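Re: the multi-chain job from yesterday

Posting the exact lines I submitted so nobody has to dig through the queue logs.
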Amino acid sequence: MDLKLGHYNKDGIEVVDVEGEIDVYTAPRLRELLIDLVNKNNYQLVVNMEKVEFLDSTGLGVLVGGLKRVRAHDGSLDLVCTQERILKIFRITGLTKVFGIHGTVDAAIAAKQSEK
Amino acid sequence: MATVEVAFTPLPAHVRTARLVATAVARRSGVDEALLDEVRLAVGEACSRAVEAHRRHCPAEPVRIEMTDLGERFVVVVRDSAPGAAGTQPAGASAPSAAANGASVPSSADDDGAIPAGFGLAVISGLADDVRVSSTSSGVSVQMSWPSAVATA
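And the result, structure tokens for all chains:
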């Protein structure tokens, strides 16, 4: 399946909903969205990956790129992910140490607000 | 002779097709269902790397995949025709946490250089229990294999 992207603001935090497959073909669209959000001064991001069916290293690159962009503005990018197949790729690449990974969007937002 | 061979134009859009074919052939070859996600991801990574190498060096040449059922092993070989392509060196395979450590070698994965070259190979090495990367004057081949049951059908 293709990639579906959406985003909304909740409690001052921009939540990005991602659905489908993030790979070498679709990842540029996610990158463009993250760049666009940062360019519009959204530096507190949560990427909801609960409906992501596939993620490869290109997708990881986009997420790391997004993280670098928001950190340049003292922001943060957290993930929502409970799927073992997706979590596995974060574990084998060591990126679980880089991203805050939460079980729900609400938990991710609460964690961000507690950091403020 | 391989069980199934696929050659495709080096476009990102075709990588999904390649990994779906590999997953289907793996299933037919008796690879355990629990390993199919690993096959899908590893083959996708190898094809993404090859596509990127071809787009830089030889966009008119197809990327080739050979999938072979050897009875007890299911073997996939992804071959490119781009000798010396950036990001194809297997050295990256030994540093799967390179991104976490702040490495910044530019790669097509992200314009920011957030992910180092060779990162895809590092992911493959973390997924397949048998990975061999060989670089020759005619290109790079990535061979991966997984255990499979002898087909009973």
